[in-house]
Amino acid sequence: MMKSRLACVVAFTSVLAVAFGAQSATGKNAGVDPRIAIEITAPQWQLPAGTAILGEREASLAAAEQPLAQQLRPLLQAEQYTEALALLTAQQSDEPSAALWLLRGQIEQQLKDNQAAAQSYRAALTLLPDFARAHRALALAAIADEQYREARTSLARAVSLGITDSTTYGYLGYINLKAGQSFAAAEAYQQALVLDPDNRDWQSGLLYALTQSGQYDSAEALLGDLINQRSDDAELWVQRAQVQLRQHHSDQALSSLEVAIRLGGVSSANRQAAAQLHMQAGNFPRALALLDKNLAAGDINMGYLSRLASWMMSEEQWRAAGQLLQSIDAHKSKLSSTDNARRLHLQARLAEHRGEQTNAMAAMQNAIELDPSFADAIVDLARLKTNAQAYAEAEMLYSRAAALPGYRQQALMGKAQALINQERYRESLTLLRDLYREQPSGEIQRNINTLERIVNQRGGRG
């Protein structure tokens, strides 16, 4: 009878250990984020506000407005826009021409009053609905005011009325990107580049639009042409890396990132992406060297670094994990209390692997003191206390962890294990039944069934 009971205890303990290990992997060792993020600079440029000039081919100033035009001309040439607007406001007639409304809007836009400029352009279009330049000017004011829907409508109308220069198509590409219409943006940028093939704004906009719309072959072809022209442009190599990564060509993406890094000016995020690719390829020394550069630059993302170190440990890369922790230790004075708690937790896990149980428990305790709600450290310290047969402390820690969001089942399973180790089977059974009522699962039910057999075999004792 005794032999049978012991067999049941061993089986149950094994089940709990498997359950605990699986939950720890979810909590701590989930690994590196599989989504490697390469940071690309979105196309940004200063959209011109237009030039305040006299005379338009589609509309002319009225004869009565010519004297005012002569007074405005020297002010506009001298870029004295405040004075010009004051003069125009004071002397314009009750019924200004469409051309004068356009001029007024251009002056207002030069003064960064985009809403007033838009009103003036609309007034011009009320008088002359097919005034193409007013449509494009209204689009520029709308872009500056982030009114992209109106801007797109106005630009499309300007194109239909015959304004088909590269700048107008470039604006259309920009607006479509802002609206999330990457396919339309790519088409507009392609038209802009046909008319102005050397314009870098349109090139970068087209690359961004092609990548966003998933047209990777076209993006890579364009990048090949541009890199042939500007092989020392690090941003082009970064963009190529992103396209290659989207195509699941990790080795090529890493090679492109390394070229960008050698050229200089690569962001910390992209060094981090390169480090992650190196780790996936098993090249830990280079990965750690790149992370060292980020740390030296003051970019200490402990959330990411702790996940990275945990992943290394789960992959049995203990030496690399230790080297990463040494690098982090050199900058620990710059860490917050929460981040230092993460660092200590990792140090504790490394010490545990080395068989240094006392050091591991001390580091875990220090981590909890720095961050009292650090559930992973609380659970791990409880497990270490259980292994050390310090059951009272272990139970208190498990109860503490069970009160934290997302850790109740893991903590109570750990506490049940501690009770089993003390042969307190009935208490463990009660605990698991309570847990089952809260979070029913087949795994918990199987454990309950095993414990019920043990209790019955003992005749109700324990």
Automatic annotation (TrEMBL):
The stretches annotated as TPR repeats are: 98-131, 166-199
Keywords on this record? Repeat, Signal, TPR repeat
Q: Domain of life here?
A: Bacteria
Asked if the record carries the keyword Cell membrane, the reply is no
The cross-references to Pfam families, in alphabetical order and at most eight, read:
TPR_16, TPR_19
Does this UniProt record's set of keywords contain Signal?
A: yes
Which residues constitute the signal peptide according to the record?
1-19
Which PANTHER family did the record assign? TETRATRICOPEPTIDE REPEAT PROTEIN 6 (PTHR44858), UDP-N-ACETYLGLUCOSAMINE--PEPTIDE N-ACETYLGLUCOSAMINYLTRANSFERASE SPINDLY-RELATED (PTHR44858:SF1)
Q: What is this protein called?
A: Tetratricopeptide repeat protein
Q: Which organism is it from?
A: Gilvimarinus japonicus
